Amino acid sequence: MNEPIVDTVAIIGVGLIGGSIGMAAKARGLARRVVGVGRDGKKLVRAQQLAAVDEVTTNLFAGIGEADIVFVCPPVLAALPMIEAISGFLKPGAIVTDVGSTKTMITRGAEALIPDERYFVGGHPMAGSEESGVEAAVPYLFLDATYVITPTEYTDVNALSTIVNFAEGLGSQTVMMSPEQHDASAAIISHVPHVLAAAILKLAAEEQGRSGKVFELAAGSFRDLTRIALSPPEIWRDVCLSSKDAITSELKRFEEILSEVRSQIESGDDQALLQLFSDGKQIRETWVRNEKRGE
């Protein structure tokens, strides 16, 4: 077991991500004490039974008052109001971090809310599943996963080092980038694909209503492409609203590519279409190969 990085960790929102952080922190000895904080006492008791936390409380301010690190794990639109609520109750030296899948709004907003001698470091563990709740939490969720940390020009160096060490203690590989670069990248590899999955299902359902035949043909490729649409709808609504600029910017770029492809199909441009699919195959193969090498 590792030497504890901090004495006390508080987790606000002990669901899939928060619960997995607590389980991993306890299993790996990253903190002497893990406190679960939330509004639903029954869910908190369940989190304690599942060994996601050591202690639980529905008293927000008591729960975070002794914490060296506070993990804020609500839906992304609730993160800033939560950080504002706890900001006046943090002990000197406390570090607040979040796990939101959008970073610019939360990171820039939190930096303006955290008082002196308390610190904020934005984070996004790139791990999860279509399931939700602490029952889906596992202590190995972050093993070999990418954990993005989003420092800014205002980030305290010691606080940053603590969060990096904690994230790597969970088993993750840390990557640092600006909040803005994170959101642009996440829009392409996560947020826009979720929008597309929902849109393709809408298209399929409309045609199913007309012909009654679409889903009879649906098989592996359609299932794989739309799997992520099983994620909780509220989460993805909030993601879109909290990162509007990045997501709409990448959707516009995607629309331009689609328009070009449509023109190639309409004009029968066989060489352009062959190049499109050849490029796609090569990019996918290179990405998978590099991923296996750990590059």
Summarize the structure.
This protein has 12 helices and 8 strands.
Describe this structure in words.
With 295 residues, the protein is an alpha/beta fold. 55% of the residues lie in helices and 14% in strands. It is built from twelve helices and eight strands. The protein has an eight-stranded mixed β-sheet with strand order 3-2-1-4-5-6-7-8, with helices on both faces. Helix 4 links the parallel strand 4 and strand 5 (95-98). Helix 4 runs parallel beside helix 5, helix 5 packs across helix 7 (179-211) and helix 7 (179-211) crosses helix 11 (244-267). The longest helix is centred in the middle third of the chain and has 33 residues, at 179-211. The radius of gyration is 21 Å and the shape is elongated. 36% of the residues are buried. The model has no long low-confidence stretch (mean pLDDT 94).
Q: How does the helix and strand content classify structurally?
A: alpha/beta
The order of strands across the largest sheet is: 3-2-1-4-5-6-7-8
Instruction: Compute the number of helices.
Output: 12
| Rounded mean pLDDT score | 94
The whole-angstrom Rg is: 21 Å
Topology:
Elements: E1 6-12, H1 16-27, E2 31-37, H2 41-49, E3 55-57, H3 60-64, E4 69-72, H4 76-86, E5 95-98, H5 104-113, E6 119-125, E7 146-150, H6 157-169, E8 173-176, H7 179-211, H8 214-217, H9 220-226, H10 233-242, H11 244-267, H12 270-293
Parallel strand pairs: 1-2, 1-4, 2-3, 4-5, 5-6, 7-8
Antiparallel strand pairs: 6-7
What tags apply to this protein structure?
295 residues; alpha/beta; 8-stranded mixed beta sheet; 14% strand
